[in-house]
Amino acid sequence: MTTITGLAAIGAGLAAMGAGMGIGRIGGSATEAIARQPEAAPKIQTAMIIAAALIEGVALFAVVVALLVA
Question: Are 12 and 62 in contact (CB under 8 A)?
Answer without folding.
Answer: yes
